[in-house]
Amino acid sequence: MAWFRTLILTGALTGVAVASEAAHGAAEEPSLFSGTWADALWTVIAFVVLVAVLGKVAWRPLIETLQARQTQIETQLTEAEKSRTEAEKLMADFKEQGATILREASERSQQERERATEKAQEEIAVMRRQAMEDIENARHAAQEQLWREAGDVVLELGTSVLGHAVTPADDGRMMDEAIAKMKEARQGNA
Fold it and tell me: What three-state secondary structure class fits 27?
């Protein structure tokens, strides 16, 4: 409401100034600098009133709008900086988590490799033991078969040399003697 009074007052003063100008010098050629002190005073008063009216009506809302916009921009900049900081922190956390996951995967892989190597070595040792046992059993079986065949050969030889059948008692005794001699000969060579 105050601005409306100021507007009416400005209009009235301007009307007085125009009427004064018209009565004063309609015949003279107007000049920018021609005039009286009263005209200058009314011009200054009109300017001051205009500045006051614009200050209340236009500049204050304009400045308030600009300050509100500045505050909004500062708030947005602060929020953007906060978001950037949070994003950098999250990125660092994700990088750390990724490095941790890679390190754990590498450790697990190494452990699995070691377990597989140990298991393979154990299986190789078991297979080697089994093979050695099989070889030893086969050697004993071959030796036993060899001794039997040698005994049979000795028995046949004894029968052919003596010319008569050898009794089971003679057979056992001669076989034992032949085996003992072969073992002694073998141990002497070893």
Answer: coil
> What are 48-55's contacts with CB under 8 Å, separation 24+?
49/6, 49/9, 49/10, 49/13, 50/10, 52/6, 53/3, 53/6, 53/7, 53/10
Round to whole Å and give the CA distance between 34 and 151.
Answer: 162
User: What are the extents of the domains in the chain?
Assistant: 133-189
Do residues 10 and 50 make contact, with C-beta atoms less than 8 angstroms apart? yes
Chain segment 135-187, per-residue pLDDT in tens: 999 888 888 888 788 777 776 776 666 656 666 777 677 777 777 777 777 77
**12's tokens:** 């009235």
* Backbone angle region of 35, left / alpha / beta, with phi > 0 → left and psi within -120 to 50 → alpha: left
75: tokens are 């708030």
Q: Which amino acid, one-letter code, is at 94?
A: F
Ramachandran assignment for 154, one of left (phi > 0), alpha (psi -120 to 50 degrees), beta (any other)? alpha
pTM for this predicted structure: 0.38
Distance, CA of 13 to CA of 6 (rounded, Å): 10
- Please report where in the chains the tokens 């050629």 appear, as a residue: 29
